[in-house]
Amino acid sequence: MTSPRKPGPPILISSVLVFGLLAASPQYLAPQSSSGSQNPPAQQEGVTAGDYVIHTSAEIGYRYTNVTGSDDMYDTLVNLQTGPRFLDETFSMQSQDHRGLLFDNLSVNSFGWGGDPNNVLRARAEKNKWYNFLASFRRDQNFFDYDLLVNPLNPPTSSPSIPVLNSAHAFDTTRRMTDIDLTLLPQSVVSFRFGYSHNNMTGPSYTSIHTGTDALLLQPWNTTMNAYRFGADWKIAPRTVLSYDQFLYYYKGDTDPQLSSFAMAFLPGGGTVELGLPIDTANKSPCAVVPPATSLINSSGTLTNLDCNGYFSYFRNQRIRTSTPMERLSLRSNYFQRVELLGSFTYSSADMNTPQEESFNGLESRSDTRAFTTTGTGSARQISNVLDLEGTVHVTKHIRIIDKFYYWAFRIPENANFTEIDNVCTATCNLLTPLSATAPESTTTLTQASFNQTWITNQTQVAWDISKKVGANLGFRYSDQVFKHFIDFLPGDEDYFAIHGYTELFGVWARPIHALRLNFNQEYTSFDNVIVRISPRRQSQYRFQAGYTPRPWAVLGGSINIFQQSNGDSAVNYQGHNRNYGLTASLAPNERFALDLAYNYNDVIQNALICFNDTPPPGVSLPFVNNAASCAANDPANPLLANSYYTNHTNFGMFTVRFKPSSA
Amino acid sequence: MSAISSRVLFVSMPFIFFVVILAVGQTTPQSGKAAPSPAKHATAAPSADSSKYVGAETCKTCHEEIYNGWEKSPHWKTTLNKEAAPSKQGCEACHGPGAEHVEGGGDKTKIFVFGDHSRQETSARCLSCHGEGHEQAHFSESAHSSSNVGCLDCHSPHHAKEKPYLLIQSTPQLCYGCHSSAKADFAKPYHHRVNEGLLQCNDCHNPHGTAIAGQLRTMPNGDAICYKCHVDKQGPFVYEHVPVKTEGCVSCHTPHGSTNPRFLRVSLVNMLCLQCHTFPTQGPAGPAHNQSAKYQACTMCHVAIHGSNFSNVFFK
Known about the structure:
By secondary structure, chain A is mainly β. Chain A has two helices and 32 strands. With 316 residues, chain B is mainly alpha-helical.
C-alpha cells in the first residue's frame, strides 16, 4: 500500500523558505495587498480611468521547501510544496462619484495560485440601488496520511510481517467550492435574491471493507452538491420586511470503492489473492500458518494456507442521489415602538435514494462463503420543520427583555430492500473451491425505520445597561429534546428519550474607560436525561474577556474560557473540560513596524468509565479493575473496567514582527 | 417539575412574552421617519421636520477631512437618494439633524456623537437602516449585543481598514482580538484553514447573531452548518448514527482545531467510541476485540461512521 499521492523517501533538509517579489504594472503599483489573513495596506491614489479609480497589485514568489522526516506527515499538516506561486492579487475599481455605468465598486482578491493547497478568489460588485453581487471560488486540496489512524497494527511476530506504514484510510482529495449571490434592487420595496453554490470533491482515497478480513479498497472520491437559492424581500411597512426563500439542493455521490492491493499472494496453480490489511498469523488473521510451512506466503510468493480469508474481487456501486427542496417564510420588524420582532418558518423535505449493488469474490472462512452479490435499493427522507421566533422589548432606555424561541423537528423515514445471495460451500471450502461447488443462499433485508427528533428551546433574558460604563444580563433557557427511533415498527422495538435542559445565564460587562472593556459570561445547565453516554447531565461555561487599547495602535487582550461537562451516573462517571487562558498584544506604532504577540494555555480532559477486552503483555499492569462488577455483569465479552482518561495540555505562543523599509 | 407541566410552561412562554409586549402598551407604530426604539432616547433623534437638517455639504465646511474620507465610502451614496427624507441622507442619517449643532457654533450636545453614547444607542442608529438585512436581523437578540459588543466594535464608517463592510481590521484578526482561544485553536496541527484564508469565521458563525447558541449558522433545514462543505455527511441515510443527529458533530470533533487527527476530541479512536459504547449505552456495546492488538481504531471496520445506506453497523 502507498499513500494515494506518492510514496517517496523522506527528504533531508528541514526548512521552508518563501521568496516573495512584488510585481505589478508600474503605473498601478500599490503596496502589499491583503489576503484573507493579512492586514490591508494603506490605500494609495491609484490610477484614474474614466470615472473609475483603479488599484491593482500582485505578489509573486517562489517557495522552496525541504522536509526531513515523514514527507506524508508534512503533507498532512502543511502541504506547502516547492515552486513558483502567485501569492496574492488584488484589483479594485471604484467610481469616483458612485455613479458608474455598470458598477460603482468592483473588487477582486485572490491568492494561492500555482500549486498551493488552498486557492481562493473572491469578487464583489455593486451598483447603488440596482444590485449587489458576491462571488467566490475556493479550492482546498486535502492530503491525509497519518499512519497510526485506522491501522490494524500488524505485529512483527506475524509471518510474514507486513507493517502498515501508511494510513489505511489515506486520502488526497480536492474540494472546489463556488458561491454566487446576486441581490437585485436591494433598496426597493421589493427586492430579489438569487444564489448558486457548487461543491465538488474529487480525488483518490483509501477505505476498507470488513468481510472475512479487512480488504483495502481504492475509493475514487466524487461528490457534488449543487444548491440554488431564490428569495424575495417585500417591505410591507416601515422597517418591516416579509421574505420568502426557496432553496433547491441536489447532491450526487458517485464514490464507488473497488479492491486495492496490500498483501497479494500467488495461488498454487496460478492466479492471485488479496489477503487484506490485518496480517497477524498468530491470531489467525487472515489465517494461521499451517506447519510444515513457516510463513503464510512462501519464498516464491505463494499462499501456503488455502483456508485463508481473501479477496479475488470486490466492487460496490454507491450512486447516491439526494434532492432537498426547502421553503422559508420570514418576517422581521421594528415597526412598533420599543419592540423588535423576528420570525421565520422553514419546511424542507430531503429525498435520498441509492442502488444497493455489491459483489464479492473470495473467501469468508467463518461462514464458508465463496462469493456474494447484493442487489436492491435504499432510500431515506428527512422532513424538517424549523420555527424561529425572537423578540426584544425595550422596557426602558436601559432595560430590555429578549426572548428567543427555536423549534426544530425532523423525521427520517428509512427504507432498504435488498437481497444478498451468498455462494456457500457445500463441502470443504477454500480459496480454490469453484463457484460450481457452492449453493446459493438468499437473504433479504427489509428495513423500515424512522428516526425522529424534536428539539425546542426558549431563552429569555433581561439585559440592563446600568450606565454607559456597566451593564448586566440575566436569563434562563429551557430546552426540550425528544428523540424517537422506530426500528421496524415492531412492538417494543423503539428507542425513546426525552431530555429537558435548564440553563441559567448571567453576564456582566464593564467599560470603565473608553480604552478598556471587560466581559464576563456564565452559563450553567442541568439536564434530566441523556441520549448518549457522555452527554452531560451538568454543563457549565465561564468566559472572561478583557480588551485594553491604550493607544489606537496598541491593542492588548486577555481571556479565560472554561467549559465543563459531567455525567455523574455511577456506571459512566463522565468528566470533561476545556479550559483556555490567553493573552494577546498587537502593537503597530507606525506603518513601518508592527509586533504581534500571543500566548495561550489549553487544558483538556475527557474521562469516562469504559468496559473493554484486553490482554496486557507480561509484566504490564494496566490501570483497570479486572472483572469489575458492572462490566462483567452487563457486558461479559468486555469484562475489564477502566477509566478512559484523556488529557491534553497545549501551550501556544507566537510573535510576529513586521517591518517595511519604506512606508510608501 | 414534571415533563408535561414544564413543557406546557415552556411552550407557553413565547405567548406570555408577547402578552407582556401588549401590556407594556407600547405597540403603537413609530412615526414613519423615526429610528427604532432605543435611538429615540438619544440626543439629536431623527426628526420629521426637514428644517432641522442642513445637508452634508454644510457639515463639510467644518469637517472637511472626515468628509473627504467619507465621500469615498458606501455611506456617501445616501446623499444621492434625493427622494428619501433628509433623515436618511448624508451625515445626518447617522448623526441626526444638524441645524441646532450648526447654530450652536458646533455644539457637540446638539448632534449625535457616537463616542458619547452607549453601544446599544449607537447600534440602534446603524440598525435603523441595516436592521432590515438578513445578516443583521438577529443582532438585538445576539450574544454580542447582550455583551455590549456593538456595530462600532467591528465596523468604522470613517476609519475602516478594510473597505468591504468597513471593518476596522481584517478577519480573522478582528475576531481574535476578543476570541484569543480561537486563535490558539486554529494554530493546532489539525485545524480548519482559517488562518490560511480558505475559510472565514463568518462562514460558520454570524457575528450579528443567529437563532441558536454560539451565533452559529445553520443549514436552512436546521442541520449543522458543517454540511455546507462536508456535503457527503449530511444524509439522510438509511442507517443514521444516532449522535451525529442528536448531539451534533462536536460530539466527536473539535471544529476549530485539535492536536488529534480528524479533529477528534481524544487521540485514540477506540477510547472515543467506547466512552459511549459501554454499558449503559444507546446502541450496541463495544466489540470483544483485544484492544491492545489490532482494531484500535473502530473506524477500521466501521468506515461509514457518519451514517450508511448499506450497513446498519456502518461497515460500508
